[in-house]
Amino acid sequence: MSALFQPFTLRDVTIPNRVWMPPMCQYSAEPEGPSAGVPGEWHFAHYAARAVGGTGLIIVEATGVSPEGRISPRDLGLWNDTQVEAFRRITRFLRDQGTVPAVQLAHAGRKASTDRPWKGGAPVGPDAHGWQPVAPSALAFDARHPVPTELTTDRIREIVGQFADAARRALAAGFEIVEIHGAHGYLIHEFLSPHSNHRTDAYGGSYENRTRFALEVVDAVREVWPDDKPLFFRVSATDWLDEGGWTPDDTVRLARDLQAHGVDLLDVSTGGNASRVRIPTGPGYQVPFAARVKAETTLPVAAVGLITDAEQAEKILANGEADAVLLGRELLRSPSWAQAAARELDGEVRMPDQYGWNM
């Protein structure tokens, strides 16, 4: 059988194939009021289409653990029970299609309170439903972003608790896997990288101190997340800086630490923490970072980054560079990519009865 269409089991959860959908923000929730952060009709249709198309695992977009943790006022959240109830409709449908539902829990840190990208993505203030961002250090992301408020140790502990509370709600909402967002220049990544973390207390300076917050979040989530369900962590393997940033060596070291703290898979991306860096994009440009973690640790990994065709995805798995592939933009373009790839590779993928009988 094609490697792409072999099942993959982590703890007691079996994912039917290795075609996975990464978190991709839709910026389509209401910004305020009782519907703030609540998934709506757009979210249902968006995720349902990829499940019907045969995607094995769908990771719901970055979901704020608090209102202030959202990237934009239009992001989803898991800080109240209204959101939990709305998510249940989505997770129920995904499971009915044989797709494993997952959710990424996130805090945007200094990159919070921004407009939707098709509106320019600039920071927004209270007049546009915005708020004051927070960060490990009072360092703005770039010239157009405001200087964030430096977090006190008490506020750090509070945010750790918010991740745990959101994980409890994710379980109640029917998700089978939780992913902690430690990438793309958001709060956890900001603590990890010396580029954005200039603290001199127990959360800054040495590698051990800069990773403390990430591991505290993992421990808090793992404590409330059932032992039979997997926990993922998304990392930016490099800041793409020549010096003074997070590096691939750091990522390999962190992978070992994360595994020791109960993480079951590393979702390997790159960048997002430093503005105006040159990133050499191209087909599969981030795969080597996942491959290095897989080669140098025993932690399973998923690869992402301009993976677009079935043969390319198959080779990544067959060559042992990753355990699964995450297709972002390609799944936006082709919701039934998995079914098309199965035909091309002579693999097997679930087809809804409503379609399969007529194929």
Task: Give an account of the 3D structure.
The protein has helices at residues 41-52, 81-96, 153-172, 187-192, 207-210, 212-224, 248-260, 287-296, 310-318, 329-333, 337-345, 353-356; strands spanning 8-10, 13-15, 19-21, 57-64, 76-77, 100-106, 134-135, 149-150, 177-182, 231-236, 265-269, 301-304, 324-326. By secondary structure, it is α/β, with parallel strands linked by helices. An eight-stranded parallel β-barrel has the order 3-4-6-9-10-11-12-13, surrounded by seven helices. The radius of gyration is 19 Å and the shape is globular. The mean pLDDT is 97.
Q: What is the rounded distance between the termini? A: 21 Å
Structural class: alpha/beta
Tell me the overall shape. Answer: globular
Q: Give a short account of the largest sheet.
A: 8 strands, parallel, barrel
Query: Any idea what the radius of gyration is?
Result: 19 Å
Oligomer: single chain
Low-confidence regions: none
Helical coverage, percent range: 25-40%
Strand content: 15-25%
Count of runs of 4 or more consecutive helical residues = 12
Average pLDDT rating: 97
H/E series: EEEHEEHEEEHEHHHEHEHEHEHHH
Number of strands: 13
The order of strands across the largest sheet is 3-4-6-9-10-11-12-13
Would you summarize the structure shown here?
The chain has helices at residues 41-52, 81-96, 153-172, 187-192, 207-210, 212-224, 248-260, 287-296, 310-318, 329-333, 337-345, 353-356, and strands at 8-10, 13-15, 19-21, 57-64, 76-77, 100-106, 134-135, 149-150, 177-182, 231-236, 265-269, 301-304, 324-326.
